[in-house]
Specification:
- With 130 residues, the chain is an alpha+beta fold.
- It is 29% helix and 22% strand.
- It is built from 3 helices and 7 strands.
- The protein has a 5-stranded antiparallel β-sheet, with no helix packed on it.
- β1 and β2 form a beta hairpin.
- α2 crosses α3.
- The longest helix has 16 residues.
- It is globular, with a radius of gyration of 15 Å.
- The N and C termini lie close together (11 Å).
Length: 130
């Protein structure tokens, strides 16, 4: 589940919550496995709290990841890091056809693709509660 997967502003990649202490969290990088503290003043957000703007109502990131997982058969997304913004938009349209084109920016789409690849490569494959 994505509630224990964190994004920390100013730090690359994603982190898994290991434990909590007074005024800080202990997190582990999903990429390197290295543990480090994250303090209360860091901007920390759980992937479980993120949603994507659509034309009707917002879709939780967990549902978006589940749709991508079905499309990609549980594998990482094969898209070049140097792909154009238009290529990223076309990919997201194939997954979320009703996403809000005015409020979802190309860098948001790239971040979704990067995050999905990180969690899949870390062995996290359950996104929605059964």
């Amino acid at each position: 589940m994505l509630k224990d997967v964190l994004s920390i502003s100013g730090k690359p990649g994603l982190y898994k919550l290991v434990s909590q202490a007074k005024g800080m969290l202990v997190v582990e990088s999903l990429v390197t496995g290295k543990r480090m503290p994250a303090y209360a003043h860091d901007k920390i957000i759980s992937l479980g709290d993120i949603s994507i703007y659509t034309e009707d109502e917002d879709r939780p990131l967990s549902e978006v990841f589940e749709t991508i997982k079905e499309k990609e058969s549980g594998k990482a997304i094969e898209i070049s890091k140097s792909a154009s913004a238009e290529e990223y938009r076309k990919y997201v349209e194939s997954v979320i056809p009703d996403y809000d084109r005015e409020r979802v920016y190309p860098n948001d789409i790239k971040r979704i693709v990067d995050w999905y690849n990180i969690v899949i490569n870390a062995g996290i494959t359950e996104f929605v509660e059964k």
